[in-house]
Specification:
Blueprint (H helix, E strand, L loop, with lengths): L5 H9 L6 H13 L4 H14 L3 H13 L13 E5 L8 H10 L4 E5 L9 H5 L11 H10 L2 E5 L6 H11 L7 H14 L4 E8 L8 H17 L3 E8 L7 E3 L1 H11 L5 H18 L5 H7 L1 H12 L13 E6 L4 E6 L1 H13 L13 E4 L6 E2 L4 E7 L5 H7 L4 E4 L9 E5 L1
Parallel strand pairs: 1-4, 2-3, 4-5
Antiparallel strand pairs: 5-13, 6-9, 7-11, 8-10, 8-12, 9-11
The chain binds uracil.
Length: about 425
């Protein structure tokens, strides 16, 4: 590989130029090996943040991050298809979606992460199930995909190590919120996972990375372009994240809600998004099964139990209960016109559902149950939110986060669409 001087690569991007494929491959590889210093990569990340990267540069950057590690080669006898969400509050969709799509005939290798900040992590939620184990070997993943059809587990350490290093650097240098850097980070891990098809749930709104629909659309387009450039059939749904998804936000509470959905019940918005994403995934897998019918039948619940049992979990064991519950009541009567996703996410995090540093533990029983959804009529004194925690001293800070989260108006709010549009 041609070697470059890191400072020349930084200067080229700082001055608004496009980096060559050779420069990108070299800098990502040299950074992963420790030959480009952290401060040089920090400067380059900031130059990319300020100047952007075009579609070619972003696809090459993604390829270089994939090549920094190994690709999973899954020997599975069904079509493989995966889903990734850019993260939101109450987003437990992976939990019902993976067993649903597996029940419909595809294989779903869902390598997931832990939560950091106000959005929860799928692994933290599943670890509230007694005995459940996140770490699987590649052989265990392959065996479970062939026997059950769905695996939700921790990403193996060999997948895109350049991203792990770069993400930690971006986190402390104010360079996370860059479309090419976010898109290449997400897609390097997903493409290295080896699925033939990928469906993205790109969230827009207060509880999401991308606050506006236009930023989220740009991210969705970039993600789909990268997938296509790397031969992975990719589609994206742009979905609203101004209010929490479903009624539960946290760990065990979200697992309980996912189980309700798998048993044919659950909140309408969680069911709607689960079915819409399942349709996209099944279309990519070439399967013409109606996921709405399968979900309503409760068959996917049996697959869920097999998936949990295969990873050491007891799907019939009671989930952890909080030591303390506090209630937020409606301050007036009228229509609940807003329940802010970001505020609810921060409050759940302060109650102990999330972590501030990677090494912190989470409380499995902590979280929030939203007892009313925007659009519903409420009366003064009616319980609106239930706060769950094992550490009651956390409640005042959670209440502070919720101070402006609830809006009650005389007039009914306009109905909001959950699924805003599709990008393919
Ligand atoms: N998720 C990722 O994996 N990477 C980012 O940069 C942002 C969200």
């Amino acid at each position: 590989m041609t070697a470059f001087a890191a400072v020349d690569v930084i200067r080229a991007k700082r001055d608004g130029g496009a980096l060559s494929d050779e420069q990108i491959r070299w800098v990502v590889d040299a950074y992963t090996r420790g030959d480009v210093a952290e401060e040089q990569m920090a400067a380059l990340a900031m130059a990319v943040f300020l100047r952007g990267m075009d579609a070619r540069e972003t696809a090459t950057w993604t390829g270089a991050m994939i090549d920094s590690g190994s690709r999973l080669s899954l020997r599975v006898d069904r079509p493989t298809v995966d889903k990734h969400s850019t993260g939101g509050v109450g987003d437990k969709i992976t939990l019902p979606l993976a067993p649903l799509v597996a029940t419909c005939g595809a294989a779903v290798p869902q390598l997931s992460g832990r939560g950091l900040g106000h959005t929860g992590g799928t692994l933290d939620k599943l670890e509230s199930i007694p005995g459940w184990r996140a770490a699987l070997s590649v052989d265990e993943i392959t065996a479970q995909l062939n026997s059950v059809g769905a695996v939700v587990c921790a990403a193996t350490s060999g997948l895109a190590p350049a991203d792990r290093k770069l993400y930690a650097l971006r986190d402390v240098t104010g360079t996370v919120e860059s479309v090419p850097l976010i898109a290449s980070s997400i897609m390097s891990k997903k493409i290295a996972e080896g699925s033939a098809g990928l469906v993205l749930d790109v969230k827009a709104g207060s509880g999401a990375f991308m606050k506006s629909v236009s930023e989220a659309s740009e991210l969705a387009r970039t993600l789909v372009e990268i997938g296509t450039a790397h031969g992975v059939t990719t589609t994206a749904l742009l979905t609203d994240m101004n209010t929490p998804l479903g009624a539960a936000v946290g760990n065990a509470v979200e697992v309980a809600e996912a189980v309700e959905v798998l048993q044919g019940g659950g909140p309408a918005d969680v069911v709607e998004l689960t079915v819409a994403l399942a349709r996209e995934m099944l279309a990519l897998a070439g399967l013409s099964v109606d996921p709405a019918r399968v979900l309503a039948s409760g068959e996917a619940y049996e697959t869920w139990c097999r998936m949990i049992t295969a990873q050491g979990g007891d799907c019939s064991a009671p989930l952890p209960r909080p030591a303390h519950v506090a209630v937020v009541e409606a301050a007036g009567s009228g229509y609940l016109s807003a329940l802010d996703a970001y505020a609810v996410g921060v409050a759940a995090w302060r109650l102990g559902a999330g972590r501030a540093r990677k090494e912190d533990p989470v409380q499995h029983a902590a979280g929030i149950r939203c007892l009313a959804k925007p659009g519903e009529q409420v009366t003064e004194g009616q319980p609106l939110l239930e706060l769950h925690t094992d550490t009651p001293e956390a409640v005042p800070a959670a209440l502070e986060a919720l101070a402006t989260a609830v809006e009650i108006t005389d007039k009914a709010p306009e109905a909001r669409e959950l699924i805003l549009h599709r990008v393919s």
